[in-house]
Amino acid sequence: MSEGGGEMASVRELKEGLLSSDRGTAEPPANDRATDYVRNQLASIGCRPGYLWLALGVFLQAGQMTLIGKVSNMLGVGQAVFIRSCFSVTLIFLVNWRRAQGYGWREIAIVTCFGVTDILMALGIGAANLFIWNGDVTAITLNVPLPSIVLAWLLLSESMDRIDIVLVLFNAGGLIFVSEPSFLFPAGKIDPEHHNAALGFLMAFLALFCAVSVTLCPRALSYREAEDPCLMASVAGMIGIIMSLGVSAASQRWTLPNGTEEWTIAIALGFVCVGAIYSYVKALESESVMTVSVTITLSILLVNVYDFTFDERKPEWPKLVGIALILGSTFALKLKDIFLGCYEARR
By the 8 A CB rule, do 202 and 137 touch? Predict the structure, then answer.
């Protein structure tokens, strides 16, 4: 009797142990999984190097745009590109030559393409500004995200869906409103003395094509594990020195900065441009073309904040609408990924 009771107690204890083990290994409820996913995603934003480089790139790009606006009043396009290129060349001393020795012809072609299109982009923007309103140039050349993500989807097999396209179109609309192009806001914005719409728009679209190439080339190298921001910047610098000297010789214009203030602005432009290139390429090492190209448009918001604050320009409704669209689309792209992941975690 006692032996039978002992056996029953042992069986009972065994069942309880198995039940408690099952409860310990059971999956957490769907709501808890979703909450943990969102918490981990938000926590990872500050831990991803690509995001940190991208944040730095946004500020440096804004500084570059602001300084170029000041330099354009005292230097020609060729001289501005020359100064920028001289600073870029200095990064040749930081190149990882051991990695570069393993480059094949494809890697060399991608690096060269980056250098050529980076300089053509700068020259194209400067040339377009000579013939059409600055807002028209900005509205075209800053709309890099849409063609970039489409080509990244076709050439690099990066993901893209309909929601992404819609949000990028909102971003493009925001950039157009912020730029206030003459085809939407024509009052007093075209100088007839220099107006040549066909040539100006041709230069602007050439600069846009080059800007897309500057975005895709580093990302293509990252898939080959062959990216080197110092090499890419120094190659762009060498090409830029040659091309800018050619442009200056053809235009027969060479103007040096005059005075301490102008020299300070020119030197600051060189440092900021190099930092912007480096951080942009570093961000593309780990983040997608869509993330980088859309987020970098936040720089135009910082430029407008600078104008409103220090240049005392009155914010008009088109710029405010554009700022809202850019901010909304940029954050919506990130929130979309979080919510979709949260939905999958709940299933």
Answer: no
% of the chain residues with pLDDT over 90? 29
Q: Which of 137, 322, 114 is nearest to 221 (CA)?
A: 114
pTM, full prediction = 0.80
- The sign of the dihedral angle between the CA atoms of 160, 165, 171, 176 is positive
Give the Cα separation of 78 and 251 in Å (integer).
9
Q: List pLDDT tens digits, range 176-234.
A: 888 888 777 765 555 544 567 778 888 889 999 999 999 999 999 998 888 889 999 99
